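User: Sorry, folds how?
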Amino acid sequence: MQEAELAFAAEIDGRPGVVVNFGVYAGREATIAEVERLGTELLERVSSVEVVCERRESFGPDRRAELYQVRVELPGHDPAEASALVPAVEAWAQDCISERRLITP
């Protein structure tokens, strides 16, 4: 089984962005303060950004899954710019996870 990447560039609703598998590594949702910190950090690199926090519940006959994901969407930007943001977004996620984690590695 392949391990999920922490952060990676992806097309989100036809726009370039970065996806963070936050819950896989943190075992929790990102806090409002953490998301605000991410937005502030990214504004040093791009002129505008949208940060979406998503919680999904998936149910089946023999399973139940929760997904906590953070998406960074870059309206009007090119895919290369999203790829360039991955290291900064991943560093943010690592900092958040190391500060407060609900699962053990």
Notes: Residues 7-99 form a domain with the Alpha-Beta Plaits fold (CATH 3.30.70).
